[in-house]
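Researcher: Go.
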Amino acid sequence: MARTQAQEHAQGMDYPSFRSHEAKPITPPQSAGVRGSYRCVIDYNHQPFSITWSGSPEYPDLARLPLKNVDVSSVHQSSEMALIWRNSMIIDYGSHASIRTTEYGRFPILKLAHSDELSIKLIQHEFDVLAELAKLGLPVVEFDPQPILDNGVTCGYRMKKLSKLELSELWSRSDDIKEVLGQFHSAGFSHGDFSPSNIMKDEVGHLILIDPSFAGRLGSAAPPFFPSWVYTNGIYSISSDLERLNRYIVPI
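Model: Structure:
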């Protein structure tokens, strides 16, 4: 079964064995379809589980196991994806993807799309545009040209490890940040999701813009599956990049 069609199988959880490892969320809380009910996917012992709870949209206390007043069900994975999960650890997540790490290889960081259709489409777009940006020598992460496949469907990719910028660096290196964003624009591309969290640095301190899920060639039409807030008129432009640069980093 393709990852985009992964089904959650409601099975009884062996709660005594659900104690010895830390459960970590890998997706944001989302409506479970009933008012006041929420769900997310967690990583527990390198396996995915869907949890559903009622009340606040905030995560339940995942540090106290077994989880109380929480429905738990396993999430189906292909053998390929199960192997990737067993050999990696979750380190971060966002609205459409999670970040995992391994302890070996040239590309130890893995970005995996969530299982919904939009997230799969976004990671496929991101992988394709990364290849274009890299060919132009733009400041993007070095990545494995072979995507991560799940039953033949691109669902992620591997990349080199980067480091986060300290808050003080956002100010002290504001001119450098403005320059790397300008390189995108001069090459005819927008980033589309410019923010401090999407600015990192490589092992020698060069600034790198990450997460180009919404990047594209200026003046062309953005894909119809993009959220409407990204490009209000549906055309790739630099306006949101510049607005965010002005808001977060330095006045233009």
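Model: The CA atoms of residues 4 and 117 lie 6 Å apart.
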